[in-house]
Amino acid sequence: MTKSALQIARAEYQPKLPKALKGFVKVVEGEKTQSVADQKEIEGLFPHTYGMPILKLEESSEIPHFPAINVGVILSGGQAPGGHNVISGIFDGVKKLNPDSKVYGFILGPGGLVDHNYKELTADIINEYRNTGGFDIIGSGRTKLEHEDQFDKGLEILKELGIKALVMIGGDDSNTNACVLAEYYAAKGAGVQVVGCPKTIDGDLKNEMIEASFGFDTACKVYSEVIGNIQRDCNSAQKYWHFIKLMGRSASHIALECALQTQPNVCIISEEVEQKGQSLDDIVTYIAGIVAKRAAKGDNYGTVLIPEGLIEFIPAMKKLIAELNDFLAHDDKFATLDVEEERAYVTANLSKENAAIFASLPAGVARQLTLDRDPHGNVQVSLIETEKLLSEMVADKLEAWRAEGKYNGKFSRQHHFFGYEGRCAAPSNFDADYCYALGYTASALIANGKTGYMSSVRNTTAPAAEWIAGGVPITMLMNMERRHGMMKPVIQKALVELDGAPFKTFAANREDWALNTCYVYPGPIQYFGPTQVCDQPTKTLVLEQGK
To answer: Which of 368, 367, 280 is closest to 319 using CA atoms?
Structure first.
């Protein structure tokens, strides 16, 4: 396989570890825990893994003897930079405890466990993937583990391979699966531990014990580099407004972090839109107002950052989508209509309020809302080209203002969606170190017989040697939510906190960034050089920890 110069150099990088993980460790138990909400219901569903204490790993002077242990690893859900380093950390950790230990990877996600599709990860394989992006060492998948027949089928191959511990590397849904699996195997006395690792570039899997989900740092740096490049071009040509949609359906952490890094003219935060009960027209009017004010100064250019899931946070649009889902799920006539007839038919069958909103949408977006549906019959809002929707409606608003004599500028626009570009990037030094430490921590939790825990590494704005490694019970992160018409236990998503330091910092500066050209150009991720350039964490993390 031909490798780039960077690949060859990065293979030699040795991730930094917390001081406590460099030798042998002991586990120190902290306070007992409870779930973030719905304590009675969660405890009832997870009697064997509920209420466990928070764990901290500390240096130990004892040299313990650990028997060889076989560990299985699963990469679950969407890719995130650093997954290979989590597996490398697990591998090095269990091999240090006993060189005869083995690591098996299940192919293409949780489905590999159910289908008995696996391979042993040897040192030769692991060394090919250290400090690289992607999940291609074993692939990933989105199979949900929620039925006992799946658990039992997985247990067959775990017993056959002598696997005593399983590490689930994934986001909130994947770690919910890990929690359910840990409880089932504990209740059954199966002798299989289950440990999770927090992954998602969206940044919505975190709390005081999980400071960041891995991949967020790298993805935001990749997006911010390209946004900075666009802003450089924007400031050079001075003739385009760039509407940039950023990945992150359930929360706006990526958009907020990229705004803090690049200082665009506009950044919409979905959580604020929902809290203020803003309409689509409110958002369009806000953007158009900034375009008009900049045009009055002779600046007919700018950048607008838009979170992928914005539509779902606009209360009126949320109601429209809910009614569309219900109506189209039970209507047989719609599928027989011509394109020209569809819109009029849908409008006629909606409530007056939703019909008015539907009629106000550009034709392309209105059609997307009626055609693109997932297997459950719901609108796939992530496929809606929100950046084009907003730019088109802003253009219409500006033309109306021009007719009224309120606007006299030029509005040429470009559209971008940054998503997959950031999911498999070579991990930043922060993510390379953080992921390796998460994997190494998971191996220590396994060695100490723990199950139902998520690997936790904290104090991450300090140098890596000062990071605090430990474990947090997954049940601590859970609550009950309605999914597909039923109440189910799931990990609570962490949304942007409007009273948190990152948002407050953004809010305090956005008026200045809107009217003036305050662009910052972060440049590409740096892997070699001064630590203040190469090892810096996200702005979000620094602000959250007050450093």
So the answer is: 280
Check 92, 172, 173, 202 and give the catalytic one: 202
Under 8 Å between Cβ of 295 and 407:
yes
User: What does the mean pLDDT of the chain come to?
Assistant: 94
Containing 319, the helix (H) or strand (E) segment is: helix 315-329
Q: What percent of the chain has pLDDT over 90?
A: 85
CA distance 350 to 339: 18
What phi and psi, each to the nearest 5 degrees, are found at residue 137? -60, -40
Q: Is 278 left (phi over 0), alpha (psi -120 to 50) or beta?
A: beta
Sole residue written with tokens 């030094």: 429
**What is the spatial distance between Cα 137 and Cα 105, in angstroms, rounded to a whole number?**
8
Concatenate the DSSP letters of all residues of 440-465 into one string.
HHHHHHHHTT--SEEEEEE-TTS-GG
Q: Give the Cα separation of 104 and 470 in Å (integer).
A: 23
For 428, which DSSP code?
P
- Tokens found for residue 367: 């059609």
Measured in whole angstroms, the distance separating CA 106 from the mean position of its chain's CA atoms is 22
Check whether domain 67-215+427-483 has CATH 2.60.120.10, yes or no: no
Is the pTM higher than 0.85? The answer reads yes
pLDDT, mean of residues 368-383: 72
Residue whose C-alpha is closest to residue 171's, from 129, 208, 201: 201
SS3 79: coil
Beta-bridge partners for 413: 241
Long-range contacts of 116-124 (CB under 8 A, 24+ apart): 116/153, 116/156, 116/157, 118/72, 118/157, 118/161, 121/73, 121/87, 121/91, 123/91
- Pick from 260, 261, 221: nearest CA to 525: 221
**Residue burial 455-491, b: 16+ Cβ < 10 Å; e: rest:** bbbbebbeebeebbbbbbbbbbbbbbeeeeeeeebbb
Q: Where are the domains of the chain?
A: 67-215+427-483, 218-422+501-529
Which two structure tokens, joined as six digits, stand for 143? Answer: 């199979």
- State pLDDT tens for residues 111-125: 999 999 999 999 999
Helix (H) or strand (E) holding 30: strand 24-32
Known catalytic membership, residue 92: no
Q: Do domains 67-215+427-483 and 218-422+501-529 have the same CATH topology?
A: yes
Is the domain defined by 218-422+501-529 classed in CATH 3.90.79.10?
Answer: no
